[in-house]
Design brief:
Order of helices and strands: HHEEHEHHEEEEHHHEEEE
Distance between the termini: 18 Å
Helix content: 25-40%
Bound molecules: aspartic acid
Length: 305
């Protein structure tokens, strides 16, 4: 676990800020969708996470960002892929859901749409933080496409053992669920590569009948096992509890050599967080336990705080 105490503190702080942003919405009677947007926006603005500012680089040293949101009540969803000039891709995804008949807009078209909705474009330099250059260099040296948690060179102290992609799931006072995910993808990915995060049913899914789900990890594997939809189907047709469904699906991901983690929440408030790596940044807050719980390592969802 080559994470410094300072880094760990930053992760816990970032998670707590995000939980606060989401909880503020939920505790004042706001919707699960708005809570998810607020929680994710907070993490996109925080350079410690691999989303928005601080996102990982493509093989050409650029940031191409993906994000998605889904409303479990209406089954409406919105997503953007490969955007390079939008500070908060989750906001653009939300607007795709709210204001278009589409689910996923990509690249230049997504940016044009965002501008038409009043979202200003930002310069590429906004997203750049130094450690991502180092990670790209290391990934290239080892000819790897890496997750934020991968450690292409164990001597590099900046490498993380955990996930930087951000996701949030929420249940509101009206019993509605929502899920969202935002990411820079994988270090050294080919330009134009789109991962699982903005693919509804792969990295993100929500349905009041079952659960709200957000995934992180080797995107290609989550796409091919249809991870998030697969969890929904298990809950719906096999009546698996959500904690069991996420474990079963992560096993499917593991069988094809995928690594990652999943968070899920059902309409009764049952929550699951499961991962097959050394750690996954995670946290909860809820009306039955209105304190912020955050964790990075361990297998127990919340062992540290
Ligand atoms: N799932 C993301 C992707 O493949 C990466 C991650 O979660 O770290 O784009």
């Amino acid at each position: 676990q080559n994470t410094s105490p300072e880094e760990l503190a930053d992760y816990h702080k970032g998670l707590e800020e995000s939980l606060k942003a989401g909880w503020q919405v939920l505790s004042s009677g706001g919707s699960a969708v708005d809570a998810v947007v607020a929680a994710i926006k907070s993490m996109e603005d925080n350079p410690v996470f691999n989303a928005g500012k601080g996102a990982v680089f493509t093989s050409e040293g650029k940031n191409e960002l993906d994000a998605a949101i889904m409303d479990g009540k209406t089954l409406d969803a919105g997503a953007v892929a490969g955007v390079e000039h939008i500070k908060n891709p989750i906001e653009a995804a939300y607007l795709v859901m709210k204001d278009t008949p589409h689910v996923l807009l990509a690249s230049v078209g997504a940016e044009k749409f965002a501008v038409s909705k009043g979202i200003p474009l930002t310069g590429e330099e906004y997203f750049v933080i130094a450690k991502r250059h180092e990670q790209l260099k290391a990934a290239k040296t080892h000819n790897k496409i890496s997750l934020d948690h991968d450690n292409p060179d164990p001597t590099l102290a900046f490498n993380d053992n955990k996930y930087g992609t951000v996701g949030a799931v929420a249940l509101d006072v009206n019993g509605n669920l929502a899920a969202g995910t935002s990411t820079g993808g994988m270090t050294n990915k080919l330009p134009g590569r789109v991962g699982d995060s903005p693919i509804i049913g792969a990295g993100t899914y929500a349905n009041n009948a079952t659960a709200a789900i957000s995934c992180t990890g080797t995107g290609e594997k989550f796409i091919t096992v249809g991870a998030a939809q697969n969890i929904h189907d298990r809950c719906r047709f096999l009546h698996e509890p959500v904690e069991e469904a996420i474990k079963d699906v992560l096993l499917e991901v593991q069988e094809i050599e995928g690594v990652g983690g999943i968070i899920a929440l059902d309409a009764k408030g049952n929550f699951g967080a499961f991962f097959n790596a050394k750690g996954m940044l995670r946290g909860t807050i809820g009306s039955s336990d209105p304190t912020f719980h955050t964790a990075v390592f361990g297998t127990d969802p919340f062992p540290e705080k």
